[in-house]
Design a protein that fits this description.
Length: 271
């Protein structure tokens, strides 16, 4: 049975035009995606260590990283060959390119996340996606140890597997995204309660009820398959083929990290 509007009236941040617009748009996206069966490629892991000098040559060369981040990551030292027009455009970028030499200001915590950003870009920034023709996976993996060097976190050895480092996110922002632009509440319910759907059309409700793979109960850690926050990040960003969990292409990586932080509160601080 669909809940009445009173079921969400005590959540003022989800009411009004913003919520209606967010849920309406998300409903359209969801209805067009059931069931999504697209590819779910995963970034390859490095099978041998790379010297930082290889990454440095790519950073300052064909990777064009230095165009925005500066030669060797020094933001005040842009490549000398840049025209005055390009320099002006870079100075006006909003948000400004991050200082890769200040580890305390960077939000990415693992090389897998860095690989994803370099390959697929950073929504709503000047960090655009790079094709295989521009930089191969091998090239990107070569960049990673060099980035560790310039931010001062290079290790003496290359770990075979990275620890499951929690992602940094704002749970309050994630809560709003969950119920609005993210569209998560349509399938997973208000505040993760599967039996408390927001107002949706009868047709969409019937289609959700008929899903062969029902939405996961986000409040039950034992029923969830993701092992860590990085898994959750990729599940939200890339989706799950064969389910209604389509790729969230409208969400920035910061938005997804906020969602991951909110999901932790639904699990009661679980894994």
């Amino acid at each position: 049975m669909r809940p009445s509007s009173r079921d969400i009236s005590h959540h003022p941040q989800y009411s009004g035009a913003a919520c209606a617009a967010g849920l309406g748009f998300a409903s359209v996206m969801l209805a067009g995606s059931l069931l999504w069966a697209g590819p779910q490629d995963q970034p390859q892991t490095a099978d041998r260590p790379y010297k930082a000098e290889q990454g440095r040559a790519i950073f300052n060369g064909k990777g064009l990283c230095s165009t925005c981040h500066g030669v060797d990551g020094h933001r005040d030292q842009l490549p000398p060959q840049l025209s005055a027009h390009i320099r002006e455009n870079i100075e006006r970028l909003t948000p400004a390119p991050p200082d890769l030499r200040r580890a305390d200001t960077l939000t990415l915590t693992t090389d897998t996340q860095r690989f994803e950003i370099i390959r697929h870009g950073h929504l709503r920034t000047a960090m655009y996606p790079l094709s295989q023709g521009t930089l191969s996976d091998e090239d990107i993996r070569a960049l990673l140890p060099y980035l560790a060097v310039i931010r001062g976190t290079a290790s003496r050895s290359v770990p075979t597997r990275e620890p499951a480092t929690p992602l940094r996110g704002d749970a309050a922002q994630g809560q709003q995204l969950f119920h609005e632009l993210g569209g998560c509440a349509i399938c997973h319910g208000i505040e993760g309660h599967l039996d408390r759907r927001p107002p949706i059309s009868k047709d969409l409700a019937q289609r959700l009820d008929a899903l062969p793979a029902p939405p996961a109960n986000l409040r039950d850690p034992a029923a969830l398959k993701s092992e860590n926050d990085e898994d959750r990040f990729l599940s939200i960003k890339r989706g799950h083929p064969g389910t209604a969990m389509y790729p969230k292409t409208l969400l920035r990586d910061e938005d997804i990290r906020d969602l991951v932080a909110y999901l932790a509160t639904l699990r009661g601080g679980g894994r």
